[in-house]
Amino acid sequence: MTFLTALRLFHWQVVRYALRHKLLAALNIASIALGVSVYLAIQIANHSADRALRASVDLVAGKASLEVRGELDDRLFPNIAKTPGVLAATPLVEGFLTLPEHPGEYLRVLGVDPFSNQPFSTFRIGDGTDVREFDFEKWLTDPTSIAISRDYASKYHLQLGDPLPVLVNSRRVTLHIGFIIDTEASLEGSGARLAAMDIASAQALFGLHGKLSGVSVRSAEGNETAVAEKIRLLLPSTVTVAPPAQRNSQVGQMLQAFQLNLSALSLVSLLVGMFLVFNTVSASVVRRRHEIGILRSGGVSRGQIRALFLGEALLYGVIGLTVGSVGGVLLSNMLVAAVGKTISSLYILLSIDHLFISAPQILFAIAAGLGSVLIAAWIPANEAARLPPVAALSSGHSIERRVSPWLPVFGLCCIGLSAIAAVISLHRWPWLGFGSAFLLLTGCSLFAPSLTAVVGKLMRVASRSSLILSLAAQNLQRSLARISLTVAALGSAVAMMVGVSVMIFSFRQTINTWVTRSLVADIFIAPASNETIGLSAFLPPDAATWVAERPEVAAVDTFREMRLPWRNSTIRMSVVRGHKRDNLRFLEGDHTRRNGLLFQPGYILMSEPFSRRHHLRAGDTIALPTPEGPRTFEIGGTYYDYTSDAGNLLMARENFDPLWNDLRIHSLAIYLRSPGDFDILTDAFREKYGTQMNFSIYSNSTLRQRVFEIFEQTFAVTALLRIIAIGVAVIGIFLTLSTLVTERVRELAVLRAVGAGQRQIICMILAEGGLVGLLASILGILTGCGLAVVLTFVVNKAFFGWTIQFSWPYGTLLTTPLWIIPAALASALLPAWRASRLQLASALRNE
Q1: Predicted confidence band at 441 (pLDDT cuts at 50, 70, 90)?
Q2: From 178's CA, which of 352, 495, 568, 777 has a CA 20 to 30 Å away?
């Protein structure tokens, strides 16, 4: 067959067929496009988050080969600069500002020395033009002058000389825009919230007199390790010296679990799209059985028949991938904001101002989409190729696949392998947790034929008095392979929804119990800016003492969080002052004694994620860097905590104060003598300190509400993916029933000829759709419950280290069939209507 002949055949058999069945073609293209859109959007969002975080590191580190990170005395800088092997060094001061006129906005301010920063700088500071030279006098002498990025100035229509009201540690200050920042091309778009000041002005602004946030160092290539060791000898143990690449690596590892979860969920949409392609090509084979027979009789080979149907899938795939690539970019604009908020809430302050879209991302998504389309189309295309010409030309022949009796055995094997993968993931390779979930879904899906057959038999027995239901149940058994595939696909989508819903519900119930036990104070006060930029602003020094002396107050607890270098990474440590509340719960039990150990000399507590991440247990010792040198503490217990999957250490002020000369605190937890004193105390606090800074003041109930707002925000992306997967799967019922109607044209015509009315035909097809919805609900709920166990106790434990108290959302489980079955009935309406309007003469002409 020549190329032109093949092209004509493709146009005649594929293109014209698609144009005649526009609805099916549109559904196919839409399903492929949706799957690729979701997958690509998640990849873009993840990549954009990575780029934004890495760029924020690179902007500060500049072209340094080493970073000195941590608060240090600025008198140490000359010693660092003179260290043998150091080619250049520049001091840095870093801090954050919030903008009261733009809630939720912030600026990351970098205090730089213009004289020593030139070899390191990745951005240029000027007046926004290329004409005038940099104004050194203004930079050095005006403490209120600040440089902002060109993107930021454009976004808020700011110009040189404009006032810029900001909150510094929640203290109101007015700065002036004196310069514009232009970043290097490689970092363009990543530093929209970067601002810069003279280093002395930044020290004064952030109250860091005589202090630095870090030092950037350049050394000869290949000599970084030796130079780092020399610099460490000059510095306190609370300061780290490492290449910027190490900090980039830590950031990547921190987000790995979160991003892997999103990627795994996005693959569900591709898998469901594969099912729809399979159904559509199957429907095409059934409809064109007679044409296949003619082509085969006319000399067209099996390979060419197979290529025709693969080409049909490819046609839909190419259009769907094109639309999906555009849709993925558009969808990523919505997802990237949700991903950025979640990362900021759980991990590190992040604002993704620009999407980072790379050609490899799009090409990989297209390759994944094309691969899934061709794999899904292969089985029906192969069946069409193997169909004998005589059988294809026979009106009485129908294409039906046999169901292997070994499928339940294979299903049990998959479930067994799932259990093995779960055990391994908890002890060695966490990513096998997703393998465990996939094997469980696969194993349970293999029971779909058995479940369909059993329910079909039961329905035939139970519906003997109803001919319509009896015929519908009989049709389930006769079309077992095709129906069970639909049940398996929709059941898997339902299982994903149920599994994730149960896990989220259990997590929410666990958080509720934890919050109820942990947040026991009546009032919580913190600087307002900390809600936007994290725990970087501190309360006034005398605030705790003033509150404690108020007659309305029974007791005051204080909280401080800090980051410490440890084992080539950075860990969080919380410092608390207060009385023993017995509000922590421990993995080891003995809660009362371990709560008391927190306030004993030489003891520290650790959170459950910290224990799991760093392989430590109660009774072990841990050496921490302090301004007085390394100190060793005994771990008094492992407490349940859900603030961060990175983990946390908890230290009492009694152990902290002798080693750290730092009395600053981030928040107060206040216990009132009478609940009615809330307004009296908060009004008095605002009157006393309101002129100094802005505060967030929460009652116990409002703070709990805020916790759950963050919780819901964290799972917003997950909810979107679940809805898309279910929506696409329900479309599969329409395609399956459409195929079955086509296969059973003669049978339906016979029923009409012997007296069945149009309404009875409609009711029979609707009954089949309803039974598919019922079967998918049963399979999905049972599989989803097992999947919830894997997600809760395997995936969550392996990646995040949290213990979640398992809870069943009975309302969700019981109501799932109440919307799955109506959705299935709605999907069956059009096939039922078409079945009732068959042309009897043409359908029965061979009878």
Answers
A1: confident
A2: 352
